[in-house]
Specification:
This protein has 763 residues and is α/β, with parallel strands linked by helices. 46% of the residues lie in helices and 15% in strands. The protein contains 32 helices and 22 strands. The strands form five sheets. Strands 11-12-10-13-14-9-17 form a seven-stranded parallel sheet. Strands 3-2-6-7-1-8 form a six-stranded parallel sheet, sandwiched between helices. Strands 21-20-19-18-22 form a five-stranded antiparallel sheet. About 5% of the residues have low confidence.
């Protein structure tokens, strides 16, 4: 009785920490449930307590399936649940879609003709195989670019279009013809065949083949439908057609499906995410109970209300009104820069000021941009001020050459049918086996109807000649590693042996350059990671195969941070920032054709996705939010005149500090004309009214306008600009060959002009 009383008391304690809608979501028992969780509304807490509540009410953890989009999110949730209910939490089927379905596919692999040790090809492996096929077909690789071909195949798989369906679809054929890629169907079919021959699946296959498994083998579907009593899906707005069909099938018997998401944060259509999954969920489950979590615990009232004023403009949405009990907070600063380089300097200066005035750390700041290419000006400016930073979204640790080399050895040790791993390591380190010999091996395998491994493990018979000797030595090496696997050695014991005896470590150690030392340290770090995997209490299967599966399913968000110094300004794209939060956020590059992107203006659906992306950017901020835009920006090597983004104009003016637009190099209050011009820009335009950057009547150049030589231009000179009209040079800013003039134009205000590009007539 005491134990039961303690359990009830603990449940009562955590329920008291929840608001009413959160409590309703946690206590909901059976039947479909949709939780619309606004930004910062505590959805992870709700999911954690909901799972804990189910287990405390007698649901077997083995019968709960919880799907997330990153291993990191799954790990954090598992640890939280473990804190509530103990080690029973480890029995929950919890992980990413890809990791959970890979686990099911390994168990049921024989149904689809695979072995349980199938390899998982990453993007590089897939593109390498596609390049090989394109070469074999003698196709123009400038038309059939591996990246484009890969994306077309990936898109087809995510829509559950098989190679056969692809080849037989007149619509798809017409699309390929228009793209001058008539051989796409043949490439797709060959690619699928080669993956199967290599006992390998790519990332998309993990979803595609799970659908095939459940479609073609009803007994297997029946098994998992009855196994999983409760199915939960986090970030439901990011699911694609394939993912939704699987979860719908799995929950068809018990109908205990709980989906959590926010349609306002659906930003991954380019990856195949289908917002209709969440918008139409009530149609598929008419008896669904919908609970809205609308209280934001993260941000100030100003930030929350500004975000609401933007997202309210989207037509396709589930209506909700996010609110907060937090402090009002400061207004959102709008920073206007003359150029993209100046934007970098102004943001770096603002960070420096905030740090000094409020005793903040670098890690309290984030700079969010639409595209990775925008990072350069901010990097340069932060370096000049000695502010440390980190860029999220650079090269993945597991994509580094030396790491992929060792992993390829490990993959081939487990699966000798892995064609891409074989091609990577057959002459690594160099053993005199060139491309010509590899081609001979491939041809011999094809002519004799056997696999590549059969040829290299019997090289004297099939190949002959002097080249047979190094091939035999390679085969002997792989056989010795296979013995280690068969003897039951764990992943670390095998990996450390492979690293030494393959001579990969030796070659890196002997390279005494800075790069060589770094590569050597990276391999050591990989081995450390494998040791950590083996030693972890949570790792039940310590085999090499299990480790390779865990690595192959890592996402960028799961990457180890190889920098021990965490006190750095974070820079990343807004897509990468989803799910994160920072005290101070700068959303930069808010210009038309950049954000929203020029490529996302053709349909209302695309524009609404861009607006959701802006909403996500706003809601990353806890205490302070700033927007910035540049009036000129280099694009494709040319200076482009820019105008403020329509999204800036959509934010309710009462939340913006337009009087503090930072003009030129002055980091105090901007000129009144600069502020007022932006206020005029914020005034809604009539549909037929053309946008004017300056907010004033466009200038008509004088009839005798002819650009002057500005090499001797100085403060006080009167000038005319083709667009801005007449003005006076206030001061010159000279930095080497980079000469700028700060000019106060009549009715427009101050403008910073780069003299190597600006056309001025000196009066």
């Amino acid at each position: 009785m005491k134990k039961e009383g303690d359990r009830l008391k603990k449940t009562e304690n955590y329920l008291q920490t929840l608001n009413e809608p959160q409590r309703e979501a946690v206590l909901h028992g059976n039947g479909p449930l949709m939780i619309i969780a606004g930004a910062g509304s505590g959805k992870t807490r709700v999911l954690t307590f909901r799972i804990a509540q189910l287990i405390e009410n007698g649901v077997d953890p083995f019968r709960i399936l919880s799907l997330t989009f990153t291993n990191k999110a799954a790990g954090e949730m598992r640890h939280r649940i473990e804190n509530e209910i103990g080690t029973e939490a480890r029995n929950i089927w919890m992980g990413t879609f890809h990791s959970v379905f890979a686990k099911i596919l390994r168990i049921e692999a024989r149904y689809l003709g695979y072995t349980s040790d199938f390899s998982i090809y990453d993007t590089d492996d897939s593109k390498s195989l596609l390049r090989s096929i394109i070469r074999e077909f003698n196709l123009d690789d400038k038309v059939y670019k591996a990246n484009v071909v890969y994306n077309r195949i990936s898109g087809a798989k995510n829509r559950l279009v098989s190679a056969e369906d692809y080849a037989n679809s007149p619509v798809i054929q017409a699309d390929d013809d228009a793209a001058r890629m008539k051989e796409m169907g043949r490439i797709y079919k060959t690619y699928v065949g080669r993956c199967f021959q290599a006992n390998a699946m790519d990332f998309d296959d993990l979803l595609f083949n799970t659908n095939v498994l459940f479609r073609d083998f009803p007994d297997v579907l029946y098994k998992y439908q009855h196994k999983f009593q409760h199915v939960m899906v986090d970030e439901f707005q990011d699911t694609n057609v394939s993912q939704y069909l699987i979860t719908r099938k799995l929950s068809a018997v018990h109908r205990n499906i709980c989906v959590v998401g926010d349609d306002a944060q659906s930003i991954y259509a380019f990856r195949g995410a289908n917002i209709e999954n969440i918008l139409n969920f009530e149609k598929d489950f008419p008896d669904v109970r919908t609970i809205k979590l609308e209280q934001n615990y993260r941000s100030t009232a100003t930030i929350v209300n500004a975000a609401n004023s933007v997202i309210a403009r989207n037509k396709s949405q589930l209506k909700k009104e996010t609110f907060t009990a937090n402090e009002e907070g400061s207004l959102i600063d709008v920073i206007k820069a003359g150029s993209d380089n100046e934007e970098g300097r102004l943001i770096a200066g603002a960070i420096f000021e905030e740090k000094m005035q409020k005793s903040l750390s670098n890690e309290d700041f984030a700079i969010l941009y639409r595209t990775n290419a925008q990072s350069r000006s901010f990097e340069e400016a932060l370096r000049k001020l000695g502010i440390k930073y980190r860029i999220i979204g650079g090269m993945s640790f597991y994509q580094r050459k030396e790491i992929k080399d060792l992993l390829a050895y490990l993959r081939y040790t487990v699966n000798q049918r892995d064609e891409e791993a074989f091609k990577r390591i057959i002459n690594l380190p160099k053993r005199g086996i060139g491309d010509g010999t590899v081609a001979k091996i491939t041809v011999a395998a094809s002519e004799n109807g056997v696999g590549v491994w059969d040829i290299i493990s019997n090289a004297s018979y099939y190949i002959g000649g002097r080249i047979a000797s190094p091939i035999d030595q390679f085969a002997t090496l792989i056989k010795s590693y296979k013995v280690l696997v068969e003897q039951g050695n764990d992943a670390y014991e095998i990996a450390s042996q492979v690293a030494k005896t393959s001579k990969l470590l030796k070659e890196l150690y002997e390279d005494k350059t800075v790069e060589g030392l770094s590569r050597y340290e990276n391999v050591q770090e990989l081995l450390n990671g494998i040791k950590e995997f083996v030693d972890s209490e949570e790792t039940e299967d310590k085999s090499l195969s299990a480790f390779l599966q865990s690595v192959s399913l890592l996402t960028n968000a799961d990457e180890p941070d190889d920098d021990a110094d965490h006190d750095r300004v974070t820079m990343m794209t807004i897509h990468s920032a989803k799910g994160l939060e920072f005290k101070n956020v700068f959303v930069v590059g808010l210009e038309e054709d950049l954000f929203p992107s020029q490529m996302m203006l053709e349909t209302r659906q695309d524009l609404e996705e861009e607006r959701r992306l802006f909403y996500v950017a706003i809601t990353r901020a806890e205490k302070k939010l700033s927007f910035s835009y540049a009036e000129t920006r280099y694009q494709w090597g040319r200076l482009k005149m820019c105008e403020p983004s329509r999204f800036l104009l959509e934010v309710d003016k009462k939340f913006l500090n337009v009087s503090r637009i930072l003009a030129g190099m002055e980091t105090g209050a901007g000129s009144s004309s600069g502020g007022s011009s932006f206020v005029r820009n914020l005034t809604p335009r009539k549909p037929s009214e053309p946008r004017n950057i300056a907010g004033t009547k466009a200038h008509t150049p004088s009839g005798d306008f002819n650009p002057s030589d500005t090499s001797e231009l100085k403060a006080g000179d009167k000038v005319e600009h083709m667009k801005f009209g007449f003005g006076t040079v206030i001061r010159m800013d000279v930095n080497g060959a980079d000469r700028k003039a700060i000019v106060k134009f009549d009715g427009v205000g101050e403008k910073t002009l780069l003299l190597s590009f600006a056309k001025l007539r000196i009066l």
